[in-house]
Design a protein that fits this description.
Elements (H helix, E strand, L loop, with lengths): L1 H41 L5 H11 L3 H8 L7 H9 L6 H16 L3 H33 L5 H51 L2 H27 L1
Helix pairs in contact: 1-6, 1-7, 2-3, 5-7, 6-7
Length: 229
């Protein structure tokens, strides 16, 4: 019964708009806690083991890199392990980019809801304020010549309460969403760098560079020999 009494008091004070905003805030808190749990389980932002594995792979230590990456609990570890074991397959880069995009899309799930709440909560609060002001002026009109200023003042502050509740829901939601998006953007940069490191390791680049330098020097020597002849 106490819960029904609280709901009744909220409806009497702020109207149905405040009740809707409170329900939205509860859903927002649930989505936020779920995203924090998901980021923690996926190891978002914790890439020390992956970085060590990528450094070993970049240095040409293939077995050490695969052994090191098997110790990581990051959501990117299975993808990078598969990339290391599938070297030389056709269209490997496109497949890996698609898999990485799918993994990052999983991290971004729920962002649309948070963005919708951040945008609509102030509008809902303003809508409640407009409804409250209409009701306040209707009461003022019904009072006729015996106008009580406290009646108008009471109606106005009750109407403005919905705007305050809407802003109180929207501002933290916007801050949480911005934090989640910044973490996801850093994850996207790290994933791109990791995939490129696996596909084009530094040792392969140095070997290709040394081979091209040797070819250039051989060509220069051949040209010099032809001139001497």
């Amino acid at each position: 019964m106490k819960s029904f009494d609280v709901i009744r008091e909220i409806l009497a004070l702020g109207g149905p708009v405040v009740l809707i905003l409170i329900a939205v805030s509860v859903l927002t808190l649930g989505v936020t806690l779920y995203k924090l749990w998901q980021f923690a389980v996926c190891g978002v932002g914790r890439h020390r083991v992956l970085s060590d594995a990528l450094e070993a792979w970049d240095a040409g230590e293939r077995q050490a890199a695969q052994r090191r990456i098997s110790e990581s609990r990051s959501y990117l570890a299975p993808l990078l392990r598969a990339a290391m074991q599938a070297q030389g397959q056709p269209d490997l880069e496109g497949r890996l980019e698609a898999e990485a995009g799918l993994a990052l899309a999983g991290l971004e799930r729920g962002f649309r809801f948070l963005d919708t709440v951040a945008q609509l909560a102030p509008l809902l609060g303003l809508f409640g304020t407009v409804l409250g002001m209409i009701e306040a002026f209707q009461n003022l009109q019904g009072a006729g010549s015996s106008v009580d200023p406290s009646l108008l003042a009471g109606g106005i502050w009750v109407a403005l309460l919905t705007t305050a509740v809407g802003l109180a829901v929207a501002m933290p939601t916007s801050m949480v969403l911005a934090w989640f998006e910044s973490r996801t953007a850093r994850e996207r940069v790290f994933a791109d760098k990791a995939l490129q490191t696996v596909l084009v390791p530094g040792q392969a680049e140095s070997q290709a560079g040394s081979q091209s330098t040797g070819q250039v020097r051989a060509a220069e020597a051949q040209v010099a020999t032809s001139f001497d002849a």
